[in-house]
Write a structure and sequence with these properties.
The chain is of the alpha/beta class and about 400 residues long. The protein is about 40% helix and about 25% strand.
Length: about 400
């Protein structure tokens, strides 16, 4: 009975993946596909709803959604009518928690003032704009379809449409980027007065254009110097870091991402979408991760059936300490041991050995039942997380 209540009390979110883009960026390893022949907008929304119905038949839900995230790809390629139809249909299938956060990702190169007003009217209350840089030369190197001016226009259009919760995505350690140029980028973003900034380092991923033909990036020492200087710029401007790459003004943390990082549950629909759900178990919660097929056409054809699933993986009880800490130790505030027990169904004693080793190495700070990474631990996060591997 105890584990039943623990599973039901975990927050529940919904992620919706939109797999199409105008152009594939050379650094991108997300499931995105060039929309060469147009987007089958209505058919895709219908497929999403078939997929959600399948998910709820497999395991009915009484928990309300605390957040919805429309990500991609480029969700802003879809019309406000399509987004409104989707959200209205979701609301008929699942309860919305009071104050639900509904985020839509937008590319500055696909801004339409009418669509932005329509998104807001449909219930989207948080906009995440993928700026990446305010330097036109860098935007060209990154293969972006917008320039600095378009990014600034996107912010103005979002504000005019009524969005008062705005995130800007920005990268650093870009090709040939100097410390001064990286800080100028940050100041340009801050001048747009967003409520939230996602500021993260460009990494070269296998299978991407940059992976095949890597550009010259700042070395590790230069990237670290940029990160240190940038964090000072952000702090001075009133942005508090609460996760490795997330900075927010007071009261403006991203609730959807926090649900990921605190090991909440989330449904996921759309081509290539990944879900995580928990159920009661004998010795620990049964945590299952499911992924959808990545091909948009295969997803359109198969959504609503088990054939749309690409993989289903049950997380073993011995893996849960790593799965939990891999997320929670990205947070500056870390986690409470009682929340580890709530999220995994395991006793806190399951962490005793790795925590003792992390303590000896100076990678964590403990106070009462709170565990958080030290400054040294955040700087060596991979080393810290490896201690929790089964």
């Amino acid at each position: 009975m105890l584990r039943t209540s623990l599973a039901v009390n975990l927050p529940l979110a919904l992620y919706v993946h939109f797999p199409w883009c105008v152009r594939k960026c050379p650094y991108c390893d997300f499931n995105s596909h060039v929309a060469a022949g147009g987007i089958p907008e209505d058919a895709y929304v219908e497929a999403l709803l078939r997929d959600l119905d399948f998910e709820l038949r497999e395991a009915p839900e009484t928990r309300p959604l605390v957040s919805i995230f429309l990500g991609g790809g480029t969700p802003s390629l879809f019309s406000d009518r399509a987004v409104g139809t989707l959200l209205e249909a979701v609301a008929k299938r699942l309860a919305f928690a009071p104050g639900i956060e509904i985020t839509l990702e937008a590319n500055p190169g696909t801004v339409d003032a009418g669509h932005f007003r329509g998104y807001r009217a449909a219930g989207v209350n948080r906009l995440s704009v993928g700026v990446q840089s305010f330097d036109d030369a860098q935007l060209k190197r990154l293969g972006r379809i917008h320039d600095r001016r378009a990014a600034q226009v996107a912010v103005d259009v979002a504000r005019a449409a009524g969005f008062d919760n705005l995130n800007l995505d920005l990268m650093f350690a870009l090709p040939q980027q100097t410390l001064g140029a990286a800080c100028d980028d940050l100041r340009a973003a801050i001048a747009c007065a967003p409520e939230h900034l996602s500021w993260y380092q460009l990494t070269i991923e296998p299978g991407t254009i940059f992976g095949a033909r890597p550009p010259k990036l700042p070395d590790n020492e230069a990237a670290w110097a940029i990160q240190q200087a940038g964090q000072a710029v952000l702090a001075e401007a009133g942005f508090a870091q609460y996760e490795v790459s997330a900075y927010a003004r007071a009261g403006q943390r991203c609730q959807h991402n926090l649900n990921y990082w605190t090991f909440g549950d989330y449904l996921a629909i759309g081509a290539g979408a990944h879900a995580k759900r928990s159920q009661p178990g004998e010795h620990a919660l049964q945590v299952t991760r499911r992924a959808r097929r990545r091909s948009p056409q295969a997803y359109l054809d198969l959504a609503g059936s088990k054939a749309a699933l690409d993989s289903v993986r049950r997380v073993g009880a011995d893996e849960l300490p790593f799965e939990y800490t891999m997320n929670a130790l990205r947070l500056n505030d870390g986690f409470q041991l009682v929340d580890f027990e709530r999220g995994t169904g395991l006793a806190a004693a399951a962490l005793d050995a790795p925590l003792a080793q992390a303590r000896r190495l100076g990678l964590i700070i403990e106070a009462a039942d709170n565990v958080r990474p030290s400054a040294f631990g955040l700087a060596h996060l991979n080393d810290l997380l490896e201690l929790f591997l089964p």
